[in-house]
């Protein structure tokens, strides 16, 4: 979760919410908490690869499971491209951004192919470095506030917003929280998953909420909502410069790049596991279910994901990826919450009303995302559903008049 979002999401969120940015962050955190609670509860019952794809399929049926998996794979593949381009944007001049982004995807996909243990070790080193950079940013902002107080820029250029802007900012900020889903996708590769995964999700989310709230608070007090809404490229680097710590700006830029690379590393691993689970059920091509005999990773799926990300890096727009990714992931969590609602009392770890709240929150935040993100998301989901209908029709025609082979998924039933 502590990835490129904490460096990149504040500008579009401030454009939507203005001085009410913290309110948007609070809404996003509440929805994330409800979603995380449902995800942890489901992960304890279904400690398998696939996350909400598996939960939706087991609790709600094949179609909801497919839509959850499709939303995660497509939305997070777009997010991978955004992470790679964000890292390159901070590190190199414009003309070198796409080649460097492609190189980052290839290298990190290679790290993931070595096995989940190496992925976790690399992610640990990355998050330590990023936390050090965020501590530097907070120290610069706090020092400036102690010495100079709150500046006059607070009232300058602040967007005038209402409740809709707050909710839209929450939908965009949700992009920065959504990483806890990838913990649940690794259910087959951790010790004591029924105990470990719910604890990991709760601890991670708690830490991240505190960090994001501190960063948002300092950004608003030092830069002001108007400046923050106009700071398109590097709001945290702008903060240290305004605070009089210009020497730290390159450090922040490198930290942002490292954070983006860390998010990209985890994203590739999570998408690969969801694709693995879908391929096992013949919802995606069966070859994607191939697991390497020594590294125990779904190497075909991860190579396919990396190839798709490279294509998106070469053709995609960076800023639109945040809204599109939020759309896909909110649909994913909507299905996770609905799945948790159906669990019997003996499997429940959180009250049913919390899962219902999470489902309602997902619907509200999806509805308030920028219109281009909503339209793009609906089109992609429609394409996925159409392809699945065609595949099911072909499969039924092929099997007409014969018994269903053992182990074949039930499709739309």
Automatic annotation (TrEMBL):
Gene3D superfamilies: Amino acid/polyamine transporter I. GO terms for molecular function: transmembrane transporter activity. GO terms for cellular component: plasma membrane. It is a multi-pass membrane protein. Its main location: membrane. It is found in: Cell membrane. This is APC family permease. It comes from Agromyces mariniharenae. The lineage of its organism: Bacteria, Bacillati, Actinomycetota, Actinomycetes, Micrococcales.
